Structures are given as C-alpha cells and as structure tokens.
Sequence to fold (211 residues):
Amino acid sequence: MKLKFLTLFLLIIPGLAATANAHTVDSVGEYRVEIGWMNEPVVSGETNAIEFYVSPLEPNLDLEDQVFKNGITGLKKTVKIQLIYKDQSITLPLSPDHNVPGKYHAFVNPTISGFYQANILGTIEDTPISLSMHPPKVDERAYIEFPEPSDLTITQMIDGHTALIADIKDLKESVNNLEEAQPNNVGYAGIGVGIIGIAIAVVAIIKSRKA
Fold:
C-alpha cells in the first residue's frame, strides 16, 4: 500500500511543477527568451503582468536544456510587448525587475478569459526581435470566487422591484375594500396604510442590501 502511494506521489509532483511554472520558452539569434504570467493561476478582471526573461543562449545546449542566467539588462526602451486578444491589441512597455537582472514586467489587466497572444517586438542589443508567443490561458474569475459575488445584480434589482410593486398593489386593494366596508374610518385607515407602505419599502431595501 505504501508503495502505491509513493508511486502516485511521484507521478503527481512533475505535473504540479509544470503548473507552477507555466512559462513559454523560445529563442531569437543568440538569446533565450521566456514569458509567462506573474500571478498564476491568472484570472480575468485582476491586474497581472507578463513576465519577460532574456538571457544569452549557452553553446552546445538544446533549447529545452537552456536555463535563465546572466540576464540581459537595458531593454526597457528597445523592447515592447503587443498583447492580442482576437481582433484587439494593446502595446505594453516593459518595467525592469530591480531584483533580477534580465527580468521584466509588462503590466496588464486581462478583462476577458481565453487565450492571448504576446508579440515581442524591438531589438535585444543589436538583434531584431519579432516573435509571437503564447502565455497560459486566462481563466474565468468566477471559478475562484467564494462565496458568490455580493454585488447587487440587475436581475436581483428587477426581482425586488417586481415584488415591491405586487405588495403595493395588494395594499391598494386592501384600502379599497376598507373604504367600501367602513367609509367613516378611511382617515385612520390611510395612516395605517402609510405605515405599512413605509415598512414594505424598508424591508425591500434591507433585502436588496443582503442580496
């Protein structure tokens, strides 16, 4: 039994490592380039950033064996990232990471879930770069929200308004019936109706705030 658990654990760990570092690596000229989201999992509606790493390629190593080291600095003014979603695009400037030379951030708030394309444009030192890369998918924000959003939705407002109108209609019918049955007590009935109406409005407001 212990052997089975150990085998399962060893199978799961590599998958977790891949998820934790879901970056894309490519090369241009003599440079290794890497992109990925700063905060993962990335969800729509939250400020995030494309992380961009640049370092020299090591000789005699395949791309998958290359690692980021000896990062290239000074690319803030020479490289930009064009982020594309379907037929819309935005050009993002790079902000150097002051703690890691050769690492940059392009801050953005992806408002829609889905797959984005990042075009790396400019020059790395004397090497032109025009490279399309694809960071991991942006997930829908709702899947990590708990409990349900507290904002009052349009549907809730409509439902509350409809219920309030129904209560007022019933109240009017009660007043009409009271007028027909006791015409001499209409004044007192009007005061009572006013109090009831205020109570209904207060309850409706309280319900809307709790919704």
